[in-house]
Amino acid sequence: MNLLQSDNTYEELIQHMEACGYSPYHIQRVKREMKWLSQNQDAHEFSSYEEACRLRSLETESDEMKEQFRSVYSLFRRYALYGTLVTPVREPLFRQDTYSLLAPYFQNILDIYKEDSIRRGLKPGTYKSSISACSGLFLHCQKEGCETLEDITEDTVLSYFCDESGKPALSSSTKVNIASVFHADLGMYTNAARTILSYLPALNRRRKNIQYLTEEEMSSVKDVLMSEKGNITLRNRAIGMLLFFTGMRSSDIAGLTFSNIDWEKEEIRIFQKKTGNELVLPLTASIGNALYDYITMERPQSGSKKIFLCERTPCKPISAGTVGNDAGRLYEAASVRQGKQDRKGAHLFRHNLATSFSRNDIPRPVISATLGHADPDSLDHYLFADIAHLRDCAISIECYPVGKEVFSL
């Protein structure tokens, strides 16, 4: 792969940097790396800028120089991808690749886990997070002199999770991701992996209090959505209808296209961005009318296939963040959730839909199907806010004497 692409690309990049006001010192560093690439890419056959940067970084022990290489090669890749130094989104172009620093023995274990994950139908984002977390543990063990799983002791594992004082230094989610690797079928490594699994420290999983819409708040929001005189735009109303009555994720609403709407069958048919699974939802009259009103009366003229567009020029498709902003405007119009600590995001509507279904004794499989969950257990997190059913689990204290002063506080 020719990372330099062409001499013209090189000249254009330098000119672009000069026009953007980059310092002469930074431009000189870029020229130096261009020269190094031209002299070495044929011999090393680089397949990516990350690979070139990694090899270049091995030539120095200086952390400052390594950071400079990351900066320059990030710039190279950014310009190659977008033709500009201003990216449409902020993204970490170079991540610390712990896996590549592992010995082949430990890499092989993670490769087996990946194959097992694919066979079980796990999503790439799921097993990649586990591989990343476990790579960190393996690298720590490797630096401590461990060459095989049998060499890893409980003290080695605990020293990775805890600081010098013995207090946990890593989160419970890191432990969960690491544990998923050792829980998997690792073939010849399985027995040793189960032993290491017992070494993992007991870390409490912390959960924030789940906020939910009260019946009064739901009524206020619904009134705003149903009122033609509400102080919201047609786009805001259409997005609000989708959030309130379908519980769709912000990313799926932002990505909604005209082809996703089947007006004749009265269906919304999408492939979810998070899970990749197909989801079919009913296109009710209220949702359909809100979409039609926005498309015919307020949507800017555009050839875009996306339904929802920005209100200001250039009228590009909206992002998931814009859906969240519209949800905030809806709460404001309904005069609810205006406190500093009140949650106002779009995801709150998914909690609301799940708990509403549960209060009406809708079966769990139906709720999971409506929300588009790939894993039925994902519903548990939403139902933690089902106050009506949680009250049924409460134990009566009528048989215990309680002083009247308790209730006067």
Short recap of the structure:
The chain has 409 residues and is mainly α. The chain is 54% helix and 3% strand. The protein has 3 domains: 7-82; 99-199, no CATH class; 215-390, hpI Integrase, Chain A, CATH 1.10.443.
CATH architecture of the largest domain: Orthogonal Bundle
Helix amount, in percent?
A: 40-55%
Rg on CA atoms, Å: 27 Å
Low-pLDDT ranges: 88-96
Count the E strands: 3
Question: What is the number of independent domains?
Answer: 3
Q: Give the helix tally.
A: 19
The fourth-level CATH homologous superfamily of the largest domain is: Intergrase catalytic core
What strand line-up does the widest sheet have?
1-2-3
Question: Notable features of this structure?
Answer:
single chain, 409 residues, mainly alpha, hpI Integrase, Chain A, 3 domains, 3% strand
Structure description:
About 2% of the residues have low confidence. The chain folds into three domains: 76 residues; 101 residues, no CATH class; 176 residues, hpI Integrase, Chain A. It has 19 helices and three strands. Strands 1-2-3 form a three-stranded antiparallel beta sheet. The protein is an all-alpha fold and 409 residues long.
List the helices and strands and how they pair.
Blueprint lengths: L6 H13 L4 H21 L4 H9 L5 H20 L21 H16 L4 H20 L10 H8 L10 H12 L6 H10 L15 H12 L7 H13 L3 H5 L6 E2 L4 E5 L6 E5 L2 H13 L22 H14 L14 H12 L4 H8 L7 H5 L3 H6 L11 H4 L2
Antiparallel strand pairs: 1-2, 2-3
